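stage 2 :: seqdesign
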């Protein structure tokens, strides 16, 4: 029988889920030619509901797993796919979806000693065949690329890690195959790999080149900066975080102990000393690891890592936690079979076809952290006493690592310098900007300063970005930074323009200086005089960004075409000098533009001058990157070779746009009879958006706001609706500068209840003053409604 050759099926899908390209390999795999698929929703190819597509779309930059697809002839195909989210230089985002199809027999494994050497090498190793398709990858390479070997097998490097570095390395691999001589590629494939890749041709006994081995010159290090031990049992529990500790348990026990395994953790450990008893209701766990043997089923089915799992009282995880000891199950048992058949958290067990299941609690001195589940497929003996001993030994070490990781995380939080404790620990929910941040404290704790950043959602779907640097060091600088950050949030909440906000901030610094100077006349830089600040407001509707700065370095912008430049924002004086004006400018930012705000500590490294540092920053910002976190890493790596002498705050944002189909505005007459027209227009638009259930509430708010604008304001009067994800914003503009105030109407008053009604119906409401006129806005949550 003729053996099917290996080939790769690829497709691209845009952000709306429409197929934009379809390869010959995809046609060969599913039977559809390109005209039959391109331009149609990708969901029509799915053989089940859209849950697989939603899991892909929910991923940040990459997703791998099994997707059920329907062949043109009606056959069901379960395909392992790898999907990458890409953003072009023009700011267009899409998904590259690839799947390797092969009937090739797996390459023979070597002698045990050779196999151990390959798998346990401290260097990342991968073997590519003569067609440059991956056939083997050791554990270090899996960790470095954050993908299991099974997900990469049969794919070429540009499909495993798309980008210019992979393309360059693939060309060097081809040269190594053709010349028979080792090659070195200077391209760096990822932060976990060395700065260059060594490509060694692999020859058979006759001297013919059959494959090429890719290795990194530098071993993968853990976060403590040391190589992890190679012994299997010693590796468990040595991870730097609890997720990695759980994943290492899978690496050690599969396939040695089980064919497939999962680790599910409690968000809050059960206390020590409590008598294990069955829980009174379902147990909520969170998946920390899921692993199966190569070519095995179950490793990517159902609930993914990081997702919550609800386990019924009679399920094996809940029973194991209640008993506080290992429990052994036959999956043909009716209760277990029913759990495996219907529970999303047990889909991996169902997909693997396992017949024997071992549940082991993760026990530590402080209590119970969760449960580890091990399963063996048919054809392998059930778990015996020695297997139980090994499972308890490995899970005990993993539990110790998880507990230590949690303790380290708490320690990092409680011992955080005052300055870091005042910074935002999580970024607020908003849809206008994709944001990543970095904060690096100075080399010495005693030299702690007052650098800070903030992200503040504003009305009208806008977002404010703030970066500041308080002069001086120590507790005084940190305290001043905390006051200024609070003041900025308060002033931003009343929607002050950028230049006016800095003027109020300047006055505050003067008052702080006066207060501290009177208390301590010899105090240097009292109250933070000389502090710098940059304040920017981005509007996803107009694509405009308004900026003003007080002695702070200007922001950098990377446009979708890859050009990097500084925004020419008037410098303005540092805060605390008083009496000098600030000037704001507005610039248009196309969708997908990158905006970088930073403090001057980024340029104070000892090795280079300011011009060299700026060139390095521009080059780092312009480098292609899969995510904004990678952009931040590029900048920090390019400019720092040691712990900084001054604090560094870096904020990078990529702009998004609310397109015309999500924003609508109307001009209204200054006539009370036009209120009914405003209600009708709003109702019709909500129906067009599929939000008819929100019509009643919105009509009431529109009626009250428009009535107030006609009665107390001046024309022109405009009504605008903004639909942003699960939020609906209603805005009414008029040319009057008077601010409406909510008051409590007396029993016999005919009016005075409008704003009270709006405040009751809306999640948030307020007034925004423009250069001419004002806008009264009200925001409601569609999900809550």
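stage 2 :: out
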């Amino acid at each position: 029988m003729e053996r099917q050759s290996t080939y790769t099926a690829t497709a691209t899908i845009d952000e709306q889920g429409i197929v934009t390209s379809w390869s010959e390999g995809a046609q060969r795999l599913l039977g559809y030619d390109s005209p039959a698929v391109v331009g149609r929703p990708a969901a029509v190819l799915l053989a089940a509901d859209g849950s697989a597509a939603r899991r892909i779309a929910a991923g940040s930059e990459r997703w791998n797993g099994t997707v059920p697809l329907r062949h043109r002839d009606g056959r069901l195909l379960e395909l392992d796919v790898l999907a990458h989210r890409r953003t072009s230089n023009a700011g267009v985002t899409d998904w590259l979806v690839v799947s390797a199809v092969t009937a090739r027999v797996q390459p023979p494994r070597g002698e045990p000693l050779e196999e151990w050497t390959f798998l346990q090498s401290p260097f990342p190793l991968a073997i590519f065949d003569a067609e440059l398709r991956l056939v083997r990858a050791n554990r270090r390479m899996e960790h470095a690329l954050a993908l299991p070997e099974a997900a990469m097998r049969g794919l070429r490097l540009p499909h495993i890690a798309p980008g210019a570095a992979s393309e360059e390395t693939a060309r060097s691999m081809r040269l190594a195959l053709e010349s028979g001589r080792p090659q070195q590629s200077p391209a760096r494939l990822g932060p976990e790999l060395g700065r260059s890749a060594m490509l060694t041709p692999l020859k058979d006994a006759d001297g013919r080149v059959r494959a090429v081995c890719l290795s990194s010159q530098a071993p993968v290090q853990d976060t403590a900066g040391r190589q992890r031990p190679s012994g299997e049992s010693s590796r468990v529990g040595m991870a730097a975080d609890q997720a990695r500790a759980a994943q290492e348990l899978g690496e050690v026990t599969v396939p040695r102990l089980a064919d497939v395994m999962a680790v599910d953790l409690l968000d809050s450990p059960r206390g020590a000393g409590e008598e294990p008893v069955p829980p009174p209701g379902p147990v909520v766990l969170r998946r920390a690891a899921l692993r199966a043997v190569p070519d095995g089923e179950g490793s990517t089915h159902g609930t993914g890592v990081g997702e919550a799992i609800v386990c019924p009282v009679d399920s094996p995880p809940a029973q194991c936690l209640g008993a506080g000891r290992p429990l052994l199950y036959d999956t043909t048992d009716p209760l277990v079979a029913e759990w495996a058949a219907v529970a999303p958290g047990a889909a991996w067990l169902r997909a693997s076809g396992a017949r024997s299941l071992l549940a082991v609690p993760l026990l530590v001195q402080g209590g119970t952290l969760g449960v580890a589940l091990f399963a063996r497929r048919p054809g392998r003996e059930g778990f015996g006493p020695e297997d139980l001993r090994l499972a308890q030994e490995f899970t005990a070490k993993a539990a110790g690592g998880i507990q230590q990781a949690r303790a380290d995380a708490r320690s990092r939080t409680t011992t955080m310098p005052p300055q870091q404790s005042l910074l935002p620990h999580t970024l607020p929910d908003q849809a206008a900007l994709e944001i990543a941040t970095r904060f690096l404290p100075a080399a010495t704790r005693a030299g702690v300063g007052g650098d800070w950043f903030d992200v503040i959602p504003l009305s009208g779907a806008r977002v404010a970005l703030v970066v500041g640097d308080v002069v001086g060091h120590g507790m005084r600088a940190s305290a001043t930074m905390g006051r200024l950050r609070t003041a900025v949030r308060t002033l931003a909440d009343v929607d002050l323009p950028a230049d006016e906000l800095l003027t109020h901030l300047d006055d505050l610094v003067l008052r702080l200086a006066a207060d501290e100077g009177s208390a301590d006349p010899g105090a240097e830089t009292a109250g933070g005089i000389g502090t710098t600040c940059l304040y920017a407001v981005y509007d996803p509707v107009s694509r405009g960004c308004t900026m003003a700065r007080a002695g702070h370095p200007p922001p950098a912008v990377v446009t979708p075409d890859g050009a990097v430049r500084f925004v020419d924002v008037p410098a303005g004086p540092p805060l605390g000098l008083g009496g000098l004006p600030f000037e704001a400018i507005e610039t248009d930012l196309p969708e997908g533009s990158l905006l970088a705000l930073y403090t001057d500590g980024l340029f104070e490294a000892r090795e280079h001058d300011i011009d060299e540092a700026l060139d390095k920053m521009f080059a780092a910002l312009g480098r292609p990157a899969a995510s904004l976190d990678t952009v931040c890493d590029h900048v920090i790596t390019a400019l720092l070779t040691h712990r900084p002498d001054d604090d560094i705050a870096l904020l990078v944002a990529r702009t998004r746009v609310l397109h015309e189909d999500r924003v609508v505005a109307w001009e209204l007459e200054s006539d009370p009879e036009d209120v009914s027209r405003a209600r009708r227009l709003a109702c019709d638009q909500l129906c067009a958006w599929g939000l008819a259930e929100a019509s009643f509430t919105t009509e009431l708010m529109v009626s009250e706001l428009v009535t107030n604008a006609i009665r107390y304001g001046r024309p022109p009067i405009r009504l605008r609706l903004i639909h942003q994800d699960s939020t609906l914003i209603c805005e009414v503009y008029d040319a009057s500068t008077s601010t409406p105030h909510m008051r409590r109407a007396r029993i016999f008053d005919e009016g005075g209840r409008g704003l009270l009604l709006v405040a009751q119906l809306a999640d948030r409401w307020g007034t925004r003053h423009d250069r001419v006129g004002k806008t009264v806005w009200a925001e409601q949550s569609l999900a809550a409604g």
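stage 3 :: structure notes
- The chain has five domains: 7-101, 112-216, 232-411, 424-655, 660-781.
- The chain is about 30% helix and 30% strand.
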